[in-house]
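Input (structure):
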């Protein structure tokens, strides 16, 4: 007989407020104070590339998830999400001409916020009408011991970091792959969200990093790694301090990084079928959400949130989908 195991909510509440930085200076700039906290510097004048690159898809039930791992003490840096509707109306007007020649501009709050995406552009129809949307709250899973392990074959490459107006993204050249069982995907890029888009046991982490892959058939596979408050992360420090303050790209030829260093040692994961978490919200994405988080410092969290206060889509209905895990 199938048994669903529901997880106890974290913090004694049905919802734990995500962590937001105390101060922020807008979606496309970073304050001197926050830059100093993370050792970040404004990008030099040779940056280019201002294109926004969205996220390019048993009968025994498993034991409850260990929710206590992400109940971080974030009270000191919690504020409300921005509510400056007038500002976002101006942004919408500013991008009116742009929308006539391409997909409509979108954001995370106000008139361009996530609850409005489906009506901003016909190309975003799935954001409102889709039935297998991401992210989700993972609160139970079906045990599947036949699930393949995650194997990473990422190359160490020069840093190519982009501010696309929605997040900080690191682009990857061809030749780096990740395998799950007999399926192999090539890494395209990875980028960051705050708070985490996926919830585990009813609560978010401070951040989440998404590794976007594509296989030979053109199917997308995205790996999500949670980020909790703790020790300073050396790789994050290198990315943050080289991230452009405005939309654009910064290539650091002599700084070699490997994306595998942003994965936990234990790569146990939960998998399900979902969608992109940004417009056009296309479905058919193979999601792998890792059970174990990595750490970042509070200063590193504040530095990112100063640039992007909130860039996470709310969790979506689960419908009849099943999450699998080991």
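Output (sequence):
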């Amino acid at each position: 007989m199938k048994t669903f195991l529901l997880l106890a909510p974290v913090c004694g509440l049905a919802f734990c407020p995500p962590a937001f930085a105390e101060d922020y200076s807008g979606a496309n700039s970073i304050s001197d104070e926050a830059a100093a906290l993370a050792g970040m510097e404004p990008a030099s004048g040779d940056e280019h590339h201002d294109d926004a690159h969205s996220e390019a898809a048993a009968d025994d039930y498993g034991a409850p998830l260990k929710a206590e791992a992400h109940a971080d003490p974030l009270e000191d840096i919690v504020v409300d999400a921005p509510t400056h509707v007038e500002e976002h109306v101006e942004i919408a007007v500013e991008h009116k001409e742009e929308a006539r020649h391409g997909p409509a501009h979108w954001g995370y709050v106000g008139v361009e916020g996530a609850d409005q995406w489906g009506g901003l552009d016909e190309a975003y129809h799935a954001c409102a009408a889709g039935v297998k949307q991401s992210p989700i709250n993972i609160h139970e899973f079906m045990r599947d011991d036949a699930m393949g392990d995650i194997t990473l074959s990422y190359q160490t490459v020069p840093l190519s970091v982009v501010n696309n107006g929605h997040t900080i993204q690191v682009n990857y050249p061809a030749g780096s792959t990740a395998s799950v069982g007999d399926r192999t995907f090539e890494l395209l890029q990875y980028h960051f969200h705050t708070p985490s888009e996926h919830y585990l046991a009813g609560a978010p982490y401070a951040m989440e990093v998404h590794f976007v892959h594509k296989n030979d058939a053109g199917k997308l596979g995205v790996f999500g790694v949670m980020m909790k408050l703790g020790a300073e992360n050396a790789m994050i420090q290198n990315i943050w301090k080289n991230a452009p303050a405005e939309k654009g790209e910064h290539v650091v030829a002599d700084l070699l990084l490997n994306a595998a260093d942003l994965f936990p040692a234990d790569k146990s994961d939960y998998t399900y079928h979902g969608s992109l978490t940004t417009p056009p919200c296309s479905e058919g994405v193979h999601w792998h959400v890792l059970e174990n988080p990595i750490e970042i410092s509070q200063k590193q969290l504040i530095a990112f949130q100063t640039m992007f206060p909130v860039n996470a889509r709310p969790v979506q209905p689960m419908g009849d989908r099943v999450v699998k895990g080991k």
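Notes: The radius of gyration is 19 Å. The domain at 19-325 is CATH 3.10.200.10 (Carbonic Anhydrase II).
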